Amino acid sequence: MKPLTKPFWALIGVGIFSISAFIIFTFTVHEDATLDISLADVKNNTNAETDIKLAPLSDFTSNQPDKLQNSFWLISDNRPTKQPTRVSIYSLDSIKSLFDSIDYNSQSWQNGNREVPRLTFNTVTEKWQRNANNIPVNEKKMIFFRLMAPLVLISNEKMLLERRYIEVNANSDEKVRQLALKYKVIDEETLKSCQSLSTEQRATLLNRVDIVPPSLVLAQAAEESGWATSRFTVEGNAFFGQWDFSGNGMVPKQQRTELGNYGIARFDSPLASVIGYLLNINTNHAYQKLRDLRAKLRSENAPITGLILAGTLDKYSERGQAYINSLRSLIRHNGLQQVDEAYLSDDNPIHLITASQ
User: Fold this and answer.
1) What angle is formed at CA 283 by the lines to CA 277 and CA 288, rounded to 5 degrees?
2) So what's the pLDDT on residue 356?
3) How does pLDDT run across 261-275, given as a tens digit for each residue?
4) Is the pLDDT confidence value at 72 over 70?
5) Contacts of 60 (CB under 8 A, 6+ apart)
6) Average pLDDT for residues 165-191, to the nearest whole number?
7) For the chain: N or C, fewer Cβ within 10 A?
């Protein structure tokens, strides 16, 4: 992939706040600790053929033109297990100083470094919402993309760990069956009555348990959250405009009553919002075209890009093709294609907290 002359987080693009996702499911995300997959869980003791490999971080650095991106089929064999270091943030300047201290800045990116820190944060503050329009556009986008990119890579890594676990374990494995329930391949009744997945169910599960290109996730997060300034993002960490019919969602001021008693799904953290988005993309029938195209590209060892997969999201928004065009414009104008080659650092994770937390 030809590198751009400027870093992706320093380029200018046009973002439109839409909260436009309208193909939704009754939405509640519960983190099930029993489904957390570790490196020890995915050791290949059966010599099973796998799409996803374990490798040292040095293997991530050199992507081959017209081939599947390394971070979409490799998991670091030295990913950290320590709890995150908590770092207090007082201002935008303190965030930028932190980025500089860990070599996570425009100069490093321009020099070809695609390593991204394992960085998380609790929430978007009202102060950001109030002041975002007064921040220079380049700086606002830089902060947004640098904070959101690690969340996307962490979420995709979880997806790859789950995919490899399925690949190296039998259809009768309890956790494989639990993953089939999580990804809506089977229901609770089937889980109790059947001791093993069928070959067809396993194939469906692998079709669903896979990454979404960071360029696409970042473009949708910017589009749906208005660069993290929407009421739903600030009140409920909602970055993707997913609807919730459970009664626990945030009610829009102009609710469309003909569509039912819906709200915008809320999440415990921005990371949980990204994980919830991936679950939506990977389970909702409206996005089967995306999953099938992604599977085809993986089978051909071809790049899986946001520009390509965006073309399948005609049902994510009422705007249809206009929505697809907007996402592609965001990806191109902000150089987000480069983030599809990014990979997570093996350094210990960092969790940002505001001075008031």
Assistant:
1) 105
2) 59
3) 677 888 999 999 999
4) yes
5) 70, 71, 74, 76, 114, 115, 343
6) 96
7) C
Token code pair at residue 134:
């007064």
Residue with tokens 């939506």: 280
pLDDT over 60 at 16, yes or no: no
Contact 124, 270 (CB under 8 A): yes
Helices (H), 183-213: 188-193, 199-208
Q: pLDDT (tens digit, 9 = 90+) per residue, 109-158?
A: 999 999 999 999 999 888 888 888 889 999 999 999 999 999 999 999 99
Q: Which two tokens stand for residue 325?
A: 């065009």
Segment 24-39, tens digit of pLDDT? 333 444 455 567 899 9
Dist CA 287 CA 291 (whole Å)? 7
10 Å CB burial of residue 249 (0-12, 13-18, 19+) is buried
User: How far is residue 11 from each of residues 14, 16, 231, measured CA to CA in Å?
Assistant: 10, 16, 26
What are the distances in angstroms from CA 309 to CA 215, 299, 304?
10, 15, 8
**DSSP letter, residue 253:** T
**CA pair distance 262, 166, nearest whole angstrom:** 34
Half-sphere exposure of 235 (CA within 13 A, CB side): 13
Residue extents of the structural domains in the chain: 17-354
DSSP string, 3-35: PPSS-GGGS---------B-S---------GGG
pLDDT higher than 90, residue 18: no
